[in-house]
From TrEMBL:
PANTHER family: POLYSACCHARIDE BIOSYNTHESIS PROTEIN C-TERMINAL DOMAIN-CONTAINING PROTEIN (PTHR30250:SF29), PST FAMILY PREDICTED COLANIC ACID TRANSPORTER (PTHR30250). The keyword Transmembrane helix applies. The keyword Metal-binding does not apply. It is found in: Cell membrane. Its main location: membrane. This is Oligosaccharide flippase family protein.
Length: 538
């Protein structure tokens, strides 16, 4: 049985991972939910405007959640934070200085170049919204420093709570501000400005919470400016590279959204679709983005924690223990990603109608669903390689996938429209996932799933798809039209049935051992009702 005799410190790390997972899961729910009323109020063109600037907002906040904090916490753990608390604080402050300089330059550059960026996107009206969204860059240095400092001490609570704070404030403000703008007769660009301002407000609330936590930390250590400057010189290259590498896997969808922001509207406009129709089609295509991000939350959260944990286990317990953790994370990612992909393919139409009022873009959404499996593999394989100090390969493979995506958009958009853009996304991610997997296996950094396990996973997916196909047939037989209420009933009941079936098969077929399920609260709680009568709880 895997991970036998794990000490309390390792247990704390996995509990921390699940705490962050729960926060990230809730955040992704909120992120998906606020887009629904936003699209319903502002329309597909309004969603297009927001999604054009969202990659900037998302990139900033992902580096502040999954990138630079991971790099900082890794450096603190290497120094031994328990034995050298002053060293940890010096390193944290040095990281802040580096990030302040970097993001200050980025914000200044954005202020002056936003008209050119907007024109490159094919829509000069986006310039002001880009500048407004860029304000979030000013907050990233402090957010990253405090999160990374506490993660280096093994305390995941500040990262989790601050993430929830940011998401709750941002979601509520976006809905409220958009409603105020739309109901007063303003157009989609005004709605986009309101959404960008609300996003900055959410980041400011996150920074405010972390400021309170930072001020209340135990035994703050006085540091000398010269020590901080010296540490800046020591870590500058390593810290920035590690931070960007750690965030690269979590930014997979955002990088593809950057490509779409610069190519989809221009490509559609240049090939038969008028400017207004192209913007509306881009908004329809963007309906799939929150669903894809929501489907990979487990992989993102485990990737965030597995990097320092693998480094720690490799040093203290040896490569076998490290490979065991990586193998568990890989199997979990394969299970959740493939199940989410198969499920979304089967219920794409009712989900689309339930959330966005009509079935426009359902074909593209079904194609995009396949990306869920590949994106999860990218995130976890990148994290494992980074845990073994292979930082360059993941970014090279990710860059290769982005190039494939960009070329795919250019070639497929004229012939197939937004379905071509969706296919390009899947193709690019498949290339990155394949290269990353081969590289990870080559360095023997993970225990590979057995052939029996793969067969069980395939069978479980087949049964789930058969169940959902039967339910789809039943709903089509008894229901007519495309109204939201019956579509919602269809989508929710089908999703619930698929989740329950998969949970039962996890237990019955042993896809994860009982000890592994102890790290998965949902499945752990299911163990009790699934135990035969008379069997005692272990």
């Amino acid at each position: 049985m895997m991970m036998t005799g794990a000490d309390s410190n390792n247990s704390r790390w996995w509990k921390g991972a699940m705490f962050v997972t729960a926060a990230a899961f809730t955040g992704k729910v909120l992120s998906a939910l606020y887009r629904v009323p936003y699209q319903n109020m502002a329309g597909d063109q309004g969603l297009y405007v927001y999604q054009q600037v969202y990659p900037l907002l998302g990139t900033a906040m992902i580096t502040a959640m999954y990138g630079f904090p991971v790099a900082l916490s890794g450096m603190m753990m290497e120094q031994g934070t328990d034995q050298k608390p002053k060293e940890a604080e010096v390193t944290a402050r040095a990281a802040f200085v580096l990030l302040f300089l970097l993001h200050g330059l980025l914000f200044t550059g954005l202020v002056f170049t936003s008209p050119f960026i907007a024109s490159w996107m094919g829509d000069p009206q986006l310039a002001g919204i880009l500048r407004q969204a860029g304000l979030v860059l000013v907050l990233v240095p402090f957010i990253s420093m405090v999160r990374g400092y506490y993660q280096g001490l093994g305390n995941m609570q500040p990262a989790a709570v601050s993430h929830l704070t940011e998401q709750v404030i941002r979601s509520g403000a976006i809905i409220g501000c958009t409603a105020l703008v739309v109901f007063n007769g303003f157009g989609p660009y005004a709605a986009g400005e309101a959404a960008a301002a609300a996003s900055v407000l959410g980041a400011a609330a996150c920074a405010g919470y972390l400021y309170v936590i930072w001020r209340r930390r135990d035994n703050p250590r006085p540091v000398v400016v010269s020590e901080v400057i010296q540490r800046v010189k020591e870590i500058r290259g390593t810290f920035l590279v590690r931070g960007l590498m750690a965030a690269s896997g979590a930014m997979i969808f955002l990088l593809y959204q950057w490509v779409d922001a610069f190519t989809v509207v221009r490509g559609l406009t240049e090939h038969a679709a008028g400017a207004q129709q192209a913007k509306a089609l881009k908004g329809i295509f963007d309906r799939g983005q929150p669903l894809l991000q929501f489907g990979t939350v487990l992989a993102v959260s485990f990737a965030m924690t597995v990097v320092p944990l693998i480094q720690k286990e490799k040093t203290t317990e040896g490569p076998d223990r490290s490979a065991a953790y990586a193998g568990f994370a890989l199997r979990l990612t394969l299970f959740t990603g493939s199940a989410a992909a198969a499920g979304l393919m089967m219920v794409a139409e009712p989900v689309n109608i339930m959330l966005f009022e009509n079935q426009a873009g359902t074909g593209a959404l079904r194609i995009l669903a396949a990306a869920l499996m590949f994106s999860g593999m990218i995130m976890i394989t990148s994290a494992v390689m980074q845990g073994h100090y292979h930082f360059i390969r993941p970014i090279l493979f990710l860059g290769l996938g982005v190039v494939v995506k960009a070329v795919g958009n250019i070639m497929l958009l004229p012939a197939f429209g937004i379905k071509g853009a969706a296919a390009a996304t899947v193709l690019g991610m498949a290339v990155t996932a394949g290269c990353s997997s081969i590289s990870m296996f080559g360095i023997q950094a993970v225990r590979l799933p057995s052939g029996t396990w793969i067969m069980k996973l395939t069978a479980s997916l087949g049964l789930m798809m058969l169940l959902l196909a039967c339910m789809n047939f039943g709903y089509e037989w008894f229901s007519t039209g495309t109204h939201r209420l019956p579509a919602a009933a269809h989508a929710l009941t089908a999703t619930a049935a698929g989740v329950v079936l998969q949970a039962v098969l996890v237990k019955k077929w042993g896809l994860f051992t009982e000890e592994e399920r102890m790290h998965l609260p949902f499945f752990h709680h299911l163990d009790n009702p699934l135990k035969p009568k008379g069997e005692k709880k272990r």
